[in-house]
UniProtKB/TrEMBL annotation:
Signal peptide (UniProt feature, chain positions): 1-25
Pfam families the record matches: DUF4397
Record flagged with keyword Cell membrane: no
Species: Streptomyces venezuelae
Stated name of the protein: DUF4397 domain-containing protein
Domain DUF4397: 34-150
Highest rank taxon of the organism: Bacteria
Keyword set includes Repeat: no
Keyword annotations: Signal
Membrane-spanning residues: none
Amino acid sequence: MTSRIHLTMAASAGACVLAFGTATPAIPAQQEEARVSVFHGIPGLTVDVYANGQELLSDFKPGTVTDPKSLDAGSYDIEIFAAGRGPDGAPALEKKVEVPKGANATLAAHLSPDGKPRLTAFVNDVSKVDTGKARLTVRHVAAAPAVDVRAAGQPVFTDLTNPKEQTAEVDAGTVNADVVLVGTDTVVIGPAGLKLKDGTSNVVYAWGNAQAKNLDLKAQTFGGTQ
């Protein structure tokens, strides 16, 4: 059974290329375009991604994220197949997604807390950031319990659960970050150096499967000064 995500700009909610070519999926006419990227966070599964029956991504590997691409607003039936098995077979994952006018969004294929594949749509905050600052958003999309995210050993985000996100504006520069089990010093990811450029919006995905010991981070950056 399919389910439906509605992206709204108030909501707090990859490498390969989005290949629309001439076979653009059928969408309502005369709609303003959105900017949409896709993150693949399901370990061990290379996939092909289809929208309304048309292939968008092929041989899409775990831990990758596409650049944002223009997409007409409208309703999309997103189907994800093991690479080479679509579109006539049964998809590994399917969801109906409503893409609103003018949105900047990322569709994340990832694991639920208990390790089941799921799709989650996030709206990206790409509004202006003050000079000398960077926006940092961390999204928990891993099969793992609640975590705290630290910078230089100090908690920045606490009690973050799948599939939630938390956001803060921080000083631009390189941040030495790690992810620990909530309320502890038990490191489950990192440390990792995050380069946060002046004026950018940065999204970090904590993804993978704790039981399989393959948790990792993937960063996505929007805009900013050069």
